[in-house]
Amino acid sequence: MRRFGSVQQKIPCVFLTEVKEEQSRKRECQQFQVVATENVNPIALESNIDGALTTEKLDGTCCYVSIYKGQSYLWARLDRKPTKQADKRFKKHQYSHKSCKGFTWNVKEDFKMVPESWVPAHRVQHHNGQPVPDEHGHIPGWVPVEKDNKQYCWHSSVVDYDAGVALVLRPSAENEDLLEITMIPLADLLEQTLELIGTNVNGNPYGMGSKKQPVHVLVAHGSVRIRNPPPVDYQQLCSWFQDNQEGRVEGIVWHCNDGTLVKLHRHHLGLRWPDGDTILNARPVVVHVDGTIREYDITSKDLFTSLSQLNGHRFSRLQDIQFDP
């Protein structure tokens, strides 16, 4: 699989943004809205945004593959966040100064505890040996997905550490219009970030699976291309999201040749998400999960076993995947 930019930090918007004092469309508890202006972000211009690869921004939860306990492991995103008291001080400073600049954190006392196995994300700055929070007051990081951790049961459903494989959704090598669900060695995904999407993630905007038979998959960041993207122009992008069939996506991520990532979310433009069917869930998909790779108990209800019984099956839409009773 071709490797694209690893998502270790918050990705900046392709346009400069401003804060409006109105209810957030993305977060119910947030009383302000971050919206795009019509001015292209200098970061995008400096990185030659016009020559970037344009890919679909997927609505799931970010994951990472790296070594843990001597083997390739899936890691879940876990940002270290401030305590309630520290968060109140931070927000008060933000409100009075209209900026987070000048606020001083005490990382040892101001932040909630995280598991011992937690590690900060790449490129998190450090001061006196302690990770420094970003402008949102968070310290991005990762925690390994253990089999017995119920908090990450949906993450766990897409990996088999004994066989060393993960369930991945990707465009077919033979036909880019066709998606395939297949098993990929975790070792082949090392140091990549992926998005976990499916039944129990973010309200399931892709309509995958059901409560009785949940379906989850990993999608490598940058693997789902937008083939005919509009120019980086505010008005043209607004029209594309609303009027173009290919625009039925949560957003766009541009992968620049120098490794820089920039994005645009529908909410930046004041547009709804989700808003009806998506382009992803309407695409045909074939299942390539070979049951001979690992030993299956045919009475088991785990996702690998269920998908292995559909090996070779093709469905007209991703959301049509269903298992026999």
UniProtKB/TrEMBL annotation:
Gene Ontology terms, MF aspect: ATP binding; RNA ligase (ATP) activity
Protein's UniProt keywords contain ATP-binding: yes
Residue spans crossing the bilayer: none
InterPro entries noted in UniProt: RLIG1
Biological process annotations from GO: response to reactive oxygen species; RNA repair
Required co-factors: Mn(2+); Mg(2+)
The protein's name: RNA ligase 1
Organism the protein comes from: Coregonus suidteri
